[in-house]
Amino acid sequence: MMLSHRLSRLSSLILPLVAVAAQALTLSPTSLYLAPGAKATIEVKRGKGTATLANTNPTAVSATLASGKVYVTANAAGVATLSVADTSGTKTTRVTVSAPLSVSPGTASLSVGQSVTVTVANAIGTITIANSNVAAIGTSLSGNVITVTGKAPGSAELTVRDTRSSVKVQVTVTSSSPPPPPPTGDIHPGRLLASNCFQCHGTNGSGGFDRIQGSTEVLSELRKFASGEEDPSGIMAAHAVGYTDEQLQLIADFLSKQ
Amino acid sequence: MDRRKFLASLSVGSLGLVGLSNAWAEDSVTPVLFPVPTNTGISGKVVVVGGGMSGAAVAKYLRLWGGTGVAVTLVEASPSYTSNIMSNTVLTGQRTLASLNYTYDTLVSHYGVTRVNARVSGINRTDRYVSLAGGGTISYDRLVLAPGLDFDLMPGMSSLAEYETRVPHAWKAGPQTQLLRNQLLAMPAGQNVVLTIPKAPYRCPPGPYERVCVIADWLKKNKAGSRIIVLDANADIIVEKENFSLAFATLYAGVVDYRPGCNVTHVDSANRVVTYDQVIGGIAKAAAAQVQAAVLNPIPPQRAPQLLKDAVLLHADPLKPFAPVNVLSYQSLADPLIHVIGDASLTTQPKAGHIGNQQGKTCADAIVRLLSGRPLNTQLVTNSACYTPITATTATWLSAVYQYQYDPGTGTGTMVILPQHNNGKAIAASSANSDNYQDMQRWFTTLMGETFS
Predict the structure, then answer these.
(1) Which of A144, A218, B127, B223 stands the most exposed, by the fewest C-beta atoms within 10 Å?
(2) Which has the closest alpha carbon to B180: B190, B166, B191, B192?
(3) CA A115/CA A176 separation, integer angstroms
(4) Exposure of B84 by Cβ count < 10 A (0-12 exposed, 13-18 middle, 19+ buried)?
(5) Which of B275, B301, B327 is the last residue of a domain?
(6) d(Cα B407, Cα B380) in Å, to the nearest integer?
(7) pLDDT: which is higher, A120 or B321
(8) For residue B389, what are the CA distances in angstroms to A226, B180, B207?
């Protein structure tokens, strides 16, 4: 404002000179951070004469100058300096292409007193955190890891920023009341595994092909099939070989108790 | 086989069945009915849509494992289920359609499943109910979708009715199976059958090749000089290549004309003319070629039913028209209160009845755990086994065991065949033979009993 005010007072005296001084070439912004695939526009305020564009790294960035703007497309990770020159001088914009700022996980659910960590990836510059509900959660940052601690039931939104952008993490805090009492009667850990036998051996191994319900010799037979000791080209070998020995033990234990 | 030896080595044991001979166990195919427990402390209201192999199994096991507190409603538009498995032998007259019929009577009378004979027209995910086509709604705590598949129109076709009256796909056993049987019977000797196979994934990977074999066997005996021309959209036989290609080249030399890499571009259902392009190894072998069929059996591309699309449960990629799920529980990735099992789900497992039954049990186990605050079972295995007739008296089989594998990088789990299992691939019978044919009959009877009784 000061400058233009002064210029306007002087304009009747030295108009041609002032006109040149007022039309200094500028680029805005002078630095850009883009994810691969992203597009951006740089505003060019024209100086004098015909402007030309130079690009130090066409692999990282494609750029074209048209109608007072530089149209930028980020191609691949890297840094490019875009220079616009006219007779008034040269101005540059530094374009950095890198993966976008991200957080993992993007949502978190925890109970009061519990902590979870959120990892920040691809940050450029300093990471800052804004916490929408300091009553519900506390946060601390170490390197690129945010530790979120539940303080009271409720929900909060963390806004994680670096020098170029921000991402949000939704956090839900539940009360720390104890989980429901464990249900009565445990489910045998081999039940679902053993149910793979039922298509051919009937429900609970009750018959069809061989009846295996209540048998105590299933494990030794399955191990013989799995090792190829018994009928290696038969369909039982083709099944048994697909399980771990621990799983075969669970299957046999379940069937023996039916 | 060493089955009899295996059986003899088992102690029949503990449940008062000692008096029954080993022969009973070897020969019995009468399903044993286990009681529904009353004391599990688990309760919830589960609606199952679809009464096929996976839907019937999940309904049964929700009661058997969940107990009387788990209310299960099975909604199915058909009064009974007609098995797709073995339905190719209806085409050859070895079985009747009626022999493949399974009712829901035992699920209702013994297991206490509530049966609703209606078509579901919509799902309200917000308020958790399904709407019935005839009016009315059924609310749920958890919804299990086992709806099978919809069939696409082949290029050039304008109505699904063309499948019902002219060119049956017969890929859902029923009236089209009988129509195809009748057309084969009426076909003059010396004329040709044309069968088209869609790009995988489709229901029952070996099924089309099995159908080619049993029809070829029947043509040899009943229609001298007739051939079956196979236009396969896949680059090659997709499963059991050794067994099928051997059968095509030897048993059925001069009868089966197998053409891989064929993209069907037009089906004239009135005149039974198929137009196709053929590309093998990136090289065009035929462009706009035509074949004339006396009997035309196009097996169409398949997708999850429109009901699931309307409920926004399908993959965003239109080339994967199935429902993505967490294979630990078959919970939809779009809605954790909805489970999708069987052919409509998007997993690494084949779309087939034997493994559909296992997905039903896996889903039932998961729902019982979710309803009672237990963690999901991560020691998870499913198995696929499939006997396949090659002639009227011989069969092969194919088997695969899938293990749950969690990838911390992507945060998702998939079912994979372990390297120890034939380097991560399915295992096939070493040859087609009559022992396998006998085993196939018993496998089928036991599988259907385990699913519907």
Answers:
(1) B127
(2) B166
(3) 12
(4) buried
(5) B301
(6) 15
(7) B321
(8) 26, 18, 10
The DSSP code sequence of A54-104 is EES-TTTEEEEEETTEEEEEE-SSEEEEEEEEETTEEEEEEEEE-PPPEEE
Token pair recorded at residue B339? 């489970």
Tell me whether residues A196 and B39 touch, CB distance under 8 A. no
ipTM surpasses 0.95: no
Q: Which domain holds residue B165?
A: 155-301
Q: If DSSP codes are grouped into helix, strand and coil, which group holds residue B120?
A: strand
Nearest CA-CA partner of B450 in B369, B399, B401, B385: B385
Residues B168 and B162: their CA atoms lie apart, in Å, by: 8
> Average pLDDT of chain B?
93
The stretch B165-175 carries a mean pLDDT of: 98
CB B415 within 8 A of CB B404: yes
Residues of B in contact with A217 (CB under 8 A): 9-11
Number of residues that make up chain A: 258
CATH code for the domain of B337: 3.50.50.60
When pLDDT is averaged across residues B342-369 and rounded to a whole number, the result is 98
Instruction: Give dist(CA B341, CA B362) in Å, integer.
Output: 9
CA atoms within 13 A on the CB side of B406: 8
Task: Please name the residue of chain B whose CA is at the shortest distance from the CA of residue A210.
Answer: B26
What tokens appear for A49 in the block? Answer: 């004469």
8 Å CB contact of A192 and B365: yes
CB atoms within 10 A of CB A203: 26
Angle (CA) B395 B401 B407, round 5°: 150
The verdict on B294 and B319 lying in the same domain is no
Quote the CA–CA distance of A204 and B60 in Å, as a whole number.
Answer: 13
Q: CB neighbours of B328 closer than 8 A, spacing ≥ 6?
A: B366, B376, B377, B378, B380, B404, B413
**Cβ–Cβ < 8 Å for A75, A105:** no
In the block, tokens 């080619």 appear at B212
The Cα–Cα gap between B406 and B326 comes to 11
Question: What amino acid is encoded at B28 in this protein?
Answer: S
Cβ <8 Å between B446 and A209: yes
Residues linked to residue A120 through DSSP beta bridges, in sequence order: A103
- Chain B residues with CB under 8 Å of A241 CB are 401, 420-422, 427
- Among B279, B236, B230, B238, smallest CA distance to B258 is for B230
**Yes or no, beta carbons of B25 and A211 under 8 Å apart:** yes
Sheet holding A61-66, edge to edge: A26-28, A39-45, A69-74, A61-66
d(CA A134, CA A139): 9
pLDDT digits (tens, 9 = 90+) for A21-57: 456 888 999 988 888 888 999 999 877 888 899 999 9
- Closest by CA position to B447, among listed A213, A208, A218, A254: A208
Q: For A150-201, what is each residue's pLDDT tens digit?
A: 888 888 999 999 887 889 998 988 886 544 444 456 899 999 999 999 999 9
Q: Delineate the domains of chain A, giving CATH numbers in brackets.
A: 2-97 (2.60.40.1080), 102-174 (2.60.40.1080), 191-256 (1.10.760.10)
